[in-house]
Amino acid sequence: MTILSLTSQSAQTSRIRLNLPKLRSLVLVLSVGALAACGQHHDDTPAAQTTASATSMPADLESAAAEQLARGRYLVKAADCAACHTSADGAPFAGGPKLSSPFGTFYGTNITPDRDHGIGNWSAGDFYKALHDGMTPDGPLYPAMPYTSYRQISHADSDAMYAWLMAQKPAAVPNHQPELSFPFNMRFAVRFWNMLFLKDGLPDASKGQSPEGTSSGASADWNRGRYLVSALGHCAECHTPRGKFGELDNALPLGGGALGRVAAPDITPQGLAARGWTATDLQTFFATGIAPQGSAFSEMYPVVHLSSQYLSHDDLRAMSTYLLGDPPPAAQPLQSRSSASADTAQLAAGRNVYLAVCAGCHGRDGEGKPHVAVPMHGNSTVRQSDPHNLIVAMLDGIDAQDFPGLERMQEMPGFAGQLSDAELAQLASYLRATWGGQPGDVTAEAVKALR
Amino acid sequence: MTAPNQNSGSAASTVPASAAASTATSASVVELPLTQFRAQPVSLKVNGQEVGPLQVPSGLMMIDLLHEYLHLTGSRLGCGQGVCHACVVILDKPDGTSEEIRTCITGANFFDGKSIRTIEGHAQRDEQGEVVALSPIQQKFLEHFSFQCGYCTPGFVNAATVLIERLKLHPVARDQVEQTITEALNDHICRCTGYVRYYEAVKEVVLTMPGLVKDAA
User: Fold this and answer.
1) What number does CATH give the domain B124-211?
2) Is the pLDDT of residue B99 over 90?
3) How large is the average pLDDT for residues A234-238?
4) Cβ atoms of residues A106 and A201 within 8 Å
5) How far apart are alpha carbons A407 and A400 in whole angstroms?
6) Where are the domains of chain B?
7) Which residues of A touch B59 (CB under 8 A)?
8) Complex ipTM over 0.85
9) Could A360 and B81 be called an inter-chain contact, meaning their C-beta atoms sit closer than 8 Å?
10) What is the Rg, in whole angstroms, of the alpha carbon atoms belonging to chain B?
């Protein structure tokens, strides 16, 4: 492990003395190669800065290396690498998690320093090329790897991530090949996809404002948030609709995507404000997974669990500043729809279903129960104009979830086997009209289509 | 506990005037649709007997209907939030299968038109209503000294009974018995930690009652 970690940066040369001379020469050759690759692009990386004094100041080197490793660890969390590269029952970063898509199934790959199955033979330059261009020493990556977003990661940050990953334990876990249908199984075709769709970044969904007395274009928070959201967090990969070829739709950045069973909601400033999100609530949500608007579930739950809970307060504030814009739009209060506007008999039927199987945990008035179930009153999923996610949650249920700190929410059972299409439609309509400010217009057909 | 106490005149008269006034104002300002209590008729079959129609407040939980309206106090209210499973009763479905259902988080109105069995319905009784024979699982729980305080026992009896009824329809292989019992009883919590003795009692019933286990084929 130590040997491999040394290939990354000369910053760690002080440790070489502990190793056999033979290994030492091998390591030196490799690290020179790696450095040459980094040095070409960026001379301002901490590693590059310390190279000049490599032989004379080992103490500084040690601290610079430690600092780079710590930064790499933070960045790997911010980029949520573990979501796709660490499986629940596997070694860290040894790959495995399944990623379903309309084109077939992808499996996260082994990115440990293992030489046979991982990225142990990659240089820092190779790593940057993979993040930036989707190109590895073994050929092009599929855009399931979000290099379309990661290409905005700076070279210095890429090097830090590489250094930290290379310092992890190698795991000899073979990769699972993607299971794709024709023509998507022709990997070389990705080159053409890249020519057409690999762009430097999506347009911004929000606007920044230059701080008073300056003309810098946007505040430091907004710019930092943009980097965290667009580059590292790769939020757009799920939250932006995709075109026919799986490319992100430039016209609707962060406007909501539907790759999985649960759709990724609209997180444009207008979309968030319409569901009652404020900057404070967004930060609470990223840090703890729970806000007054509800808890993270489906694919957002691991994002909080593996990534956003570890981000600093400053970075979370920056992310919410970027998402909501500077200044943010006012969160819209819940519209109360009078029962006259909706079909009263249908709402009464929905209320009965709610009292029968929901109120025990979500409260008779939708107020929720602490550590059991979130409130339905003003819930972000209930307030979505499309009832898709609400129906899916009712059909499939939500697993018990542990949140950062001591918070947890109980398992929500799925009601696909308990309730009919008509009952679920009545229930969804009741929830929307009563606590979502949305019309109670869900039909049994809409429920049936999602079973 | 969850039963509303709306009709109690004495309770209403003790409410301070300011609180009563604010309640009246808020009611006139914001009125979300259909969040008020109203009575609903509920008819169901309990332990083979038709009950109802009862006029119960909407939002009343089933455990309260059993305790307060039917005076069947054998089902236990434990956590009140669906975790401990002490309150489960057996729901008999029209297709002849049975399943557990938590009465602390399921509204009484859910059971309208349905058929359930509670802990009071397992033993055989004579015409005077006296117990003459326990069900096999009840008997084995006694013989194995499965419970101490007994608070979780109604839930365990119902869970094990549902398991036995499932195995009658779909027997399992002998090497699957332990796994099957663990999965079936896994959600039930016993604070006296009588799990092993519950488990052994259920295992004995499963292995000795004919037709629950597929012999090696």
Assistant:
1) 1.10.150.120
2) yes
3) 92
4) no
5) 11
6) 38-120, 124-211
7) 355, 359, 364
8) no
9) yes
10) 21
Tell me what the mean pLDDT of segment A161-173 comes to: 96
The residue type at A173: V
Q: Nearest CA of chain A to the CA of B4: how many Å?
A: 12
Spatial separation of the C-alpha atoms in residues A389 and B147, rounded to whole Å = 44
- End-to-end, the C-alpha distance of chain A in Å comes to 48
Strands B39-46, A408-409: pairing is: unpaired
C-beta neighbour count of A178 within 10 angstroms: 18
Question: What's the length of chain A?
Answer: 451
Task: Please work out, in degrees rounded to the nearest 5, the angle formed at the alpha carbon of residue B189 by the alpha carbons of B152 and B146.
Answer: 55
Contact A361, A376 (CB under 8 A): no
Contact assignment for B58 to A352 by CB distance below 8 Å: yes
Question: What pLDDT score was predicted for residue A244?
Answer: 81
pLDDT tens for each residue of A100-139: 887 889 999 999 999 999 999 999 999 999 999 999 998 8
Test A364 with B82 for CB contact under 8 angstroms: no
Name which of A342, A357, A410 is nearest B106 (Cβ-Cβ). Answer: A357
Q: How far is CA A389 from CA A191, A253, A266, B4, in A?
A: 35, 20, 12, 33
Question: What integer pLDDT is reported at residue A73 of this predicted model?
Answer: 97
CB-CB: which of A347, A360, A410 is closest to B33?
Answer: A347
Contacts of A242 (CB under 8 A, 6+ apart): A248, A249, A257, A259
**Residue ranges of domains in chain A, CATH in brackets:** 1-201 (no CATH), 220-324 (1.10.760), 344-449 (1.10.760.10)
- CA B112 to chain A, closest CA, distance in angstroms equals 10
Segment A172-178 mean pLDDT: 92
What superfamily does domain B38-120 belong to in CATH? Beta-grasp domain (3.10.20.30)
